[in-house]
Amino acid sequence: MSKPPRFKVFHKISEENAEELTSIKDMVVIRKTLNELLNPYAMAEKFALEGDEKLQEKSEIILDFHCNNFEFAQAQEFNHKKLATFLEIMDSIFEKCMAEWIPRDKAMVLFKNYLLRHSIQRPPHSLFVFNLNQVKAITDYVQQSFLKYYAMYQYAIIPKLELKMSHEQLFYYNPPEVQEVEEGEQVRPKDVPDLREYLNEEDLERMATPRKEGEGEEEVEEQQT
Q1: Is the pLDDT of residue 19 over 60?
Q2: What pLDDT, in 10s, does the model give residues 94-121?
Q3: pLDDT tens-digit series, residues 139-154
Q4: Is the dihedral of CA 61, 66, 71, 75 positive or negative?
Q5: What DSSP state is assigned to residue 12?
Q6: Cα–Cα distance, 121 to 129 (Å, whole number)
Q7: Is 201 helix (H, G, I), strand (E, B) or coil?
Q8: Cα–Cα distance between 119 and 200 in angstroms, integer?
Q9: Closest CA to 22 of 11, 13, 14, 30
């Protein structure tokens, strides 16, 4: 991808295009010409998600933006070079701000950088296109138009990403089958392998011999005395 030009002078809009625009009196024709030169539909496609059904509506909003800029430039009686440069600056700022989701305060800084780059003759860093009075007029216009309604442009152009959450069972627990006590059988201690590891034969035999009634109680009494 080629790097965009540093200066917005006769890049998208040639001097012949600018001359043609200034000669047109019908706003419908001007709108059509700006649509061909700046291609707002292609810009809208850059921001759209797959299957976006509002591409045409978004391109019309961008085209309105360009037409408003053109009317301002005409009111300021810009020559062909100033007209083309101003329209291209605004086109570049709009695209960058929407593509990178730039907040309003940083959009203002970006605009001032672009305008300063075209208002002082200091090649190769900047070129003189607009004089001081025109810089002030452009700044006031941008603050009262694009930046004033910046949040609305973002809402209309930038695609909305909706987070949809769903619940999924991550773990499945199958409890072991437990036998009922009534289903059990009496087993002699010495027949249990695990007990044989810790008890000797004498202990196992004693555990296997059933106690007589009251025998356990006598042993407890003897220990207490």
Answers
A1: yes
A2: 999 998 889 999 999 999 999 999 999 9
A3: 999 999 999 999 999 9
A4: positive
A5: S
A6: 8
A7: helix
A8: 103
A9: 30
Tell me, what amino acid is at 48? A
Spell out the alpha helix ranges (H) of 48-197.
Answer: 55-75, 80-99, 104-117, 132-144, 150-157, 193-196
Delimit the domains of the chain by residue range. Answer: 15-157
**CA-to-CA distance for 9 and 37, rounded, in angstroms?**
14
pLDDT exceeds 60 at position 199: yes
The C-alpha R_g of the chain, in whole angstroms, comes to: 42
Tokens of 7: 């200066």
Structure tokens at 206: 């004693």
Angle between helices 55-75 and 40-47 (to 10 degrees): 130
φ/ψ of residue 10, rounded to 5: 55, 45
